[in-house]
Structure formats: C-alpha cells, structure tokens
Amino acid sequence: MLSYHNHLKKNARSLRKNMTDAEQLLWSCIRMKQLAGLQFYRQKVISNYIVDFYCPKAKLVIELDGGQHFTDEMSAADSIRDRNLNNLGLKVIRFTDTDVLSNIEGVVENIMETLGLMP
C-alpha cells in the first residue's frame, strides 16, 4: 500500500466534488471498471500529492493538465512530481484538458496502449 499524507484527504474530497469538465469526461469513460475491468480512483492521495486518476493494479497515474501547467515553473514542478511518483514504482501519463475534450477516444486508446491492452 502506498503511503500518503492524511492532511491532503480533505483537499482530495473537495477536488472530487469540483472536477473540471475534462476530468468529468475522462472519469465517465474509466469509472466502474469500464476499461478492461480495471479499478480507477479519482483525486487519489499518494505520498504528498493528489493525483487526478490512479489505477493500483496497473500502477498507473493519469494526470490532466489545464493551461496553468504550461508555464516554465509548473512544468518544472510537474517533472519533479512525475519523477517522485516514478520512484514509487508508478507510471505517469499526462494529457491536456484540450486533448480530453476534443479527442476522448484517442485519449482512452492511448491509456489502453499504455496498459498493454492494444496490439
């Protein structure tokens, strides 16, 4: 089981209640084991981070990036975050909100490829 900082649980609950449009759309495609029977969680606390989506069986983190992630400062912070999650044995994949909202089929296909579910 991955450790987490308990003080982040309240923030995670708030994020689950206030998901972005992109998060809601992707969640509608992966919730309730729709994707190859795999369980995904949203706004999951892992270590000292809250990740957008997490599949424990595949050790996969899915992050959706809005416009704020495209600054040099946020890009550097995201790189550190990804490296720290990778050091926990997790694979991190990222999509932009625009990717999700304009091409959800392609995003889901990419997730399936990452999971090794497509040839």
What does this structure look like?
The protein has 119 residues and is α+β, with helices and mostly antiparallel strands. It has a single domain, classed as 3-Layer(aba) Sandwich (Endonuclease, Chain A), CATH 3.40.960. It is built from five helices and four strands; from the N terminus they run H-H-E-E-E-H-E-H-H. The chain has a four-stranded mixed sheet, with helices on both faces. Strand 3, helix 3 (72-87) and strand 4 form a beta-alpha-beta unit. 21% of the residues are buried. The mean pLDDT is 92.
List strands and helices in order, with pairings.
Layout: H1 9-17, H2 21-30, E1 41-46, E2 49-55, E3 60-65, H3 72-87, E4 91-96, H4 97-102, H5 104-114
Parallel strand pairs: 3-4
Antiparallel strand pairs: 1-2, 2-3
Could you give a quick summary of the protein structure above?
This protein has helices spanning 9-17, 21-30, 72-87, 97-102, 104-114, and strands spanning 41-46, 49-55, 60-65, 91-96.
Q: What is the CATH level 1 assignment?
A: Alpha Beta
Rg (CA only):
14 Å
Which structural class best describes the helix and strand composition? alpha+beta
Query: If helices are DSSP runs of H or I spanning 4 or more residues, what is the number of helices?
Result: 5
User: How many angstroms does the end-to-end distance come to?
Assistant: 31 Å
Beta-sheet strand percentage?
15-25%
Low-confidence stretches: none
Overall strand count: 4
Major β-sheet annotation? 4 strands, mixed
Q: How many independent structural domains? A: 1
CATH superfamily: VSR Endonuclease
Mean pLDDT: 92
CATH topology: Endonuclease, Chain A
The CATH architecture classification is 3-Layer(aba) Sandwich
